[in-house]
Amino acid sequence: xxxxxxxxxxxxxxxxxxxxxxxxxxxxxxxxxxxxxxxxxxxxxxxxxxxxxxxxxxxxxxxxxxxxxxxxxxxxxxxxxxxxxxxxxxxxxxxxxxxxxxxxxxxxxxxxxxxxxxxxxxxxxxxxxxxxxxxxxxxxxxxxxxxxxxxxxxxxxxxxxxxxxxxxxxxxxxxxxxxxxxxxxxxxxxxxxxx
Length: 195
Fold this sequence. Notes:
With about 200 residues, this protein is of the alpha+beta class. About 20% of the residues lie in helices and about 35% in strands. The chain contains six helices and twelve strands.
């Protein structure tokens, strides 16, 4: 099943063009919203809500909970920043696809967040185990219809965190006792869906 946004942006990012919806769009619980009109306070969204980071396509995907992330603006584009350790199964999906999604589930889906944060996609089909409904956005990026908010992001930048560049070593050191530093991904928010 594929869902199309109600809005698209030209190269300047300022002109909004309406796109016709399909019959499939009517069946989806989530509704497309203009990413530039979302009013989110990044410092409260990520620490207050543990989202699912998902990457892949219709052939295969993986999802994981993330506790770190940020929303803002880069290069005059709305962006979402996420962090993934190379040891995580989702890492290969992030590397091999141009898009990723961040899905904020409602509070009553804590069971799904727990499972996706404690089980590996190498051993478990987490989407099936959680009973989540896959939908697809730009670039066939997978997300979940049960979410309250979804950000579909196109990768703009990726870089490995480097221990020698950490300014506050006391804050970072306890989180990396065995190395395995995160790779930082910054993605342009190209679509957003909200319940």
